[in-house]
Amino acid sequence: MGSTGILVTLIVVTIALTTVLLMRPSITAGTTGKILAFVALCVLPALCIEAGMSTHMQRSEQTQFCISCHSMTTHGQSLYVDDPTYLAAQHFQNHRVSPDMACYACHTDYTIYGPFKDKLQGVKRIYIQYLSTPPAVIHINGGYSNLQCLHCHAGARNFEENPVHRPMMDSLTSNQVSCISSGCHDTVHNASGLAHLKMWRPGQ
Fold first, then answer.
1. What is the pLDDT of residue 68?
2. What's the rounded Cα separation, in Å, for the pair 102 and 62?
3. CA distances (Å), 23 to each of 4, 19, 20, 29, in order?
4. How do residues 86-104 score in pLDDT, each as one tens digit?
5. What dihedral do alpha carbons 162, 190, 195, 133 form, nearest 10°?
């Protein structure tokens, strides 16, 4: 049973027990009834909240969740650009990252509290989406760190033995030179320039 199934089961059991207690409050007169009431009114709701948060945290890591906001639609389309110079598209189409978690894989901070900070940033962006006006051009706060690239690429032979990468490895690991700087992997999404580009269609 998946996390969604567990959550639904907990909610149903909580509602059922609470309904029984409301219809027959005399049950709580004895010790067993008091324990049942404590479970139904305190323990199960707490478990529902925990399971709900866990389910939605997992859902927020899904590519479809990320691109469900109107302002991110073009970023989602950029994953299908049929052009090897588009960095995000090449990672997505060639499964260098999991297609189901493509956004999360490349945009989460892999430090100890990184995913938590990223979730908070996500809440802020959801607030902007529904209660404010999203910016015309979306930027990452603080820029894009090479650590997010090196999380996967560091140690990979074809990366570290690449004649372009090898002489500048120290500059890459120290973030002095950006992986997405001009002349390197500088076309990432280009979300505003997709109108006339050829798109890749899986299975066609």
1. 86
2. 8
3. 29, 6, 5, 14
4. 999 999 999 999 999 999 8
5. 160
